[in-house]
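fyi for ur records
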Amino acid sequence: MARGLRPHRHDVYIAVGGLLGGLALLGIGLHTRARHAPASVLDQDWAVAVPLLVTAGCELLRRTRPGPALLVGTAAVVADLPTRGSLATVVMFTDLVYAAVLYGPPAFARRLPWITGLFTVIGTVVPLVVWRTPQAFLLGVGVALVSLVPAATGWVVRNHRDTAVAERLRAEQTALLADMDRAQAVVAERARVARELHDMIANHMSAIAIHSTAALSLDDPETSRQALTVIRENSVEGLAEMRRLIGILRDSGDERAPAAAPTLDGLEALAETARGNGLEVMLDARHGEVPTPVELAAYRIVQESLTNALKHAAPGRVTVALARRDGALEVAVTSPYGHRGGPRAPGSGAGLVGMRERAALLGGAFAAGPEGAVWTVRATLPLGDGEGDPA
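which gave:
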């Protein structure tokens, strides 16, 4: 709603057009009422021109000051009644009523149609009661055409305009929410890929780093040969894991594309690989059937825990235990904690972050840290109904 003092360009056109039209009607002697008998000063052209001029001036304010413009315009129409009258004055007054509803404050716009309706009823009933002639009904019709009809029209147009504005804002909000959802989906997907890449490749890279360091540090052909064998095995397995991850990311639509979907049935193979890398692993898996998201999260947590044990654990036994308890799958991995004499691979801490994220996405709990002489990783993964994707 415009609130400046400068009239809108279209309002100037309306005011000028109404004034010129009224002056033209006045010039050809076309009026809405006959002369008084006997002749009166109100029959003069200037008496008709003054309300016309005032109403035209009010049209300049129809958009910027609709309330005051309607008030002054009403006074001008009342002043026009004793004169011979001008059709242009009445037409411009109806436009002032319409503009007051369309551009006025909401409360004023809601009340004005009721006020004009009340005046229409009064203008119909009172003449019928006083004059007791059917022609008196025409006065009510005239009041309705001048006040109620433009007010009702303005209310309908305003409702359509407000509805269009609300729909446009709703569409903009929907588009903004869609953009936010897309951005969050991209971030979540990047985090998922980062976790998968770390969990799938870090174990093999750590084994390669440790055994290559041993091969370079020890001047023993047999030890170097064993280390190179382990390095080759982990290189081949890491390459296969990478190919499976690329198969997930490639949107080829090929049903033969490889997919990485490890299950808890593969824990024994995972433990065997860790044993081949030099760890002493004891596996105790009593989990039964669990939802797929929980299964994947548990597998990745065990995999990362074994990787960390390979990089940081002191010599000794590493235990892996999985058990269902109180509607959740509990995962516990312990490894000797203390000084490690052999070569070790550097760690970035991303593994602990990834394990914590996987547990949090399922609404579970995660903790990792030293407990006496052992390093313990514990995760509680609610079984629920299997909803959510920890990957």
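Residues 255-260, 386-391 have pLDDT under 50 and may be disordered. thats all i got for now
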